[in-house]
Design a protein that fits this description.
With about 200 residues, this protein is an alpha+beta fold. It has three domains: about 5-65, Nucleic acid-binding proteins (OB fold (Dihydrolipoamide Acetyltransferase, E2P)); about 65-130, 5' to 3' exonuclease, C-terminal subdomain (DNA polymerase, domain 1, Orthogonal Bundle); about 150-195, Ubiquitin-associated (UBA) domain (Helicase, Ruva Protein, domain 3, Orthogonal Bundle), CATH 1.10.8. Helix content is about 45%, strand content about 20%. It has a five-stranded antiparallel sheet with strand order 3-2-1-4-5. Strand 1 and strand 2 form a beta hairpin. It is globular, with a radius of gyration of 16 Å.
Length: about 200
Amino acid sequence: MIGSLRGRISSKTPPQLTVEVGGVGYELEAPMSTFFHLPAVGQEVKLLTHFVVREDAQLLYGFATEDERRLFRSLLKVSGIGPKIGLALLSGISVEGFITCVQSQDVAALVRVPGIGRKTAERLLVEMRDRLKPAGDAAEPGAVIVAAGASPEAEAFGALVALGYRPAEATRLLKAAGPGTQTTEELIRRALQSAARE
């Protein structure tokens, strides 16, 4: 089991990143909440990880905080919830926000997250009610400039599609993010905030 990685970020294309540790590049997927905390490409990072072994793949997921990883692992225990939906949930809502949704049984807030239908949201609320404990104070995510070949708009579009949004929906959300946005992370954050308000 790989519990954490400390190394240099060699690439970032939300939601994927590669961390080089001792000459070995580990490919990970991470929720957008973790991407907001990442340093620039070429700098060192430490991530907590969760390793998933399937018949057709071995996948590694990275998290900035223990609260994120703990929630991700709890979500995977819910029937019908896989890593992709777990990442989408953590990208679309904070750990504290999710706990609030569960405590208040707020189905409407969960169905705004792409890939979460009403039945899945209701099942999540029922099954997670007894598993969650209040999370600690989360640090405010900071905007990070991504050193990559593609434009921030193209990277943000790819990330939104990877999170489950349809291409037309991703384009509309990015337009709603408004002009003057400089970084991929800021574009994604504004697009997700726009989706949450709908």
